[in-house]
Predict the 3D structure of the following.
Amino acid sequence: MWLAAASGGESFAVIRAAAPGLSPAVSGGVFLLCLIGFASKAGAVPLHPWLPRAHAEAPSHVSALMSAAMVKLGVYGIVRVGFDLFGGGSRWWWLLLAAIGAVSALYGILQAVVATDLKRLLAFSTSENIGLILLGLAAAGLWADAGQPGVAGVALAAALLHAVNHAGFKTLLFCGAGSVLHATGTRDLDALGGLSRRMPATTVLFTVGALGAAALPPGNGFISEWLLLQALLHQAPAAGTVLTIAAPAAVAVVALTAGVGVAAYVKALGTGFLARPRSTAAARAVESPPSMLAGMGLAAAACAGLAVAPTVAAPALDRIAAELNTGAAPLSGSGMDVRLAGITSTIAPLWIAVGVVGLAVGFAAAGRAFGRARRRAVAWDCGDGPLTPRMEYTATSFAEPLQRVFDDVLAPEQDVDVTHPAESAYLVRAVQYRRRLPDRIEARLYRPLITAVDTVGRAARALASGSVHRYLAYMLTALVAVLVAGVIR
């Protein structure tokens, strides 16, 4: 309403024409309000607490739709308002967006790597990827403001291509989580394991999605994160002190996020699908029906196509970049290589995929040809008896070293209860250890706010006494107040 009133109309054409004449206070205030709303829709930190709750509890195919499409509407809103309607805006807009993106990427992946609920892990991974997308949009706005339209176009292309890639691999991963839940009845990674033998097709398809989410070649997430790094690394030397400092910091954020992301999906695959089953439900799992596998196969095919031939999206990205004036034709080339506008850099995703697959097949063939024939034997067990599932790494134990490194950020809660027998307080009957990793932002920011609102709501119940006379008095008081305000004005 503020923007429509200042522009003299509600249509995009009217707003677009009036935007250059708006005062910095109006344009900045409108963008800030839109950023809060759209970032909340996208699940960006610190406006994210709804996302891991909704995505984890919804049916898996609904979670896939929410993560792949619904949160991207928030990204669309930021692009439409910041680039299209306002034509770029002020530098502080994009610095603020870059800070939100960086915090979302780091906090989201840290919460994902310590999560033991498979769908909660995937939900926080969505916040992480939204952070990377917002970081790309912020880079596009900053480089365009600094007079580097070519690099700005590459940054915008990286953000939008990552949005498409994320839709592909996150659809596949949530459907894979649904397949696991359908077969075992649990999402707890600590209680899974051994699914690679019981559910081989689901395991292979989930691995395809995990490669994309971890940004490892030949996964489809690799190419868009590589484009983002190229845009951040190729700023002009005369861009200014702020951008000279911000660009390396953003590169560090992307690098750290990628490293922790690899650990998160190694944990999901290793503890969830490999080794031995750690529960009866996992040991009795059976492969999902063909209809579920078919849906996962379609998502995997989309991921594979985007991984080896990302230029299929180049025409659409070129049109968007031209409309938003952030540079023309940011991506070009054939399916064999990708060339970047304004950057002397190319990449051949198809050859990378062929090379990785060829190396894997070559090592496997060499092992069979030159290795010793395998034979079954009892492995040395240090005299401790046969190996059992209790000796395996769980999701909790796998993430424990990273949790120690980031203790100050994650703020884990732990409690130790020691029970003594009635005969003596010096003897110990049982020791119970509990450790929780709650969402720190939710606990410190939203719980006090919800408590305050609840307190006000309970106090306001006294106003609704059921007395008609009191309700008429309320209405009369409000009418008098409105009349007095009109007279004063």
Q: What stands out?
A: The two ends are 21 Å apart (CA to CA). The first strand starts at residue 331 and ends at 332.
